[in-house]
Design goal:
Strand order of the largest sheet: 2-1-5-6-7-4-3
Number of helices: 4
Strand content: 35-45%
Structural class: alpha+beta
Oligomer: single chain
Helix content: 25-40%
Number of strands: 7
Order of helices and strands: HEEEEHEEHHE
Shape: globular
């Protein structure tokens, strides 16, 4: 399912998403992620910024036991008539094929200068694909 209209515009202008996952006991976990979007799919990668558990991050462990995730990309402004968000529900999977991994990293490098400076390698730097199943766009009334 592709995003369109104001939702797509907000996703393209946004710089940060909040990823919600759930562990095996139903406990939620929310973290910020850098993302790229392309034709109904979001991608993020486990990069080289310091992390406590490397590739075994909680978000990855959660996706392995429950691939149903949510992403929120929002716009905050002191002028509350400009508030908006996109809520995406989808299914997440680790990217297992080198070609798709390279495509995801290329998309991320186009959006974020920091990725261009990192030496990301497959399969060390896990990429995750989120297939959009449904989405909702909200904006404040002007």
């Amino acid at each position: 399912m592709n995003l369109e209209g104001h939702a797509l515009a907000l996703v393209n202008e946004g710089r940060l998403a909040h990823l919600a996952t759930v562990d095996a006991r139903g406990r939620p976990h929310v973290v910020p992620v850098c993302y790229a979007y392309h034709t109904g799919r979001f991608y993020f990668v486990v990069d080289e910024k310091p992390k406590r558990h490397g590739n075994r991050l909680k978000r990855l462990r959660n996706i392995e036991v429950n691939p149903h995730v949510a992403l929120v990309i929002d716009r905050y402004d002191e002028d509350w008539t400009r508030l908006a968000y996109v809520l995406v529900h989808g299914t997440a999977n680790m990217v297992a094929e080198l070609g798709e991994w390279q495509f995801a990293v290329q998309l991320l490098e186009q959006r974020y200068q920091g990725y261009r400076a990192m030496k990301l390698t497959f399969p060390h730097n896990v990429a995750v694909r989120i297939q959009v199943e449904r989405w909702h766009y909200w904006q404040a009334a002007s």
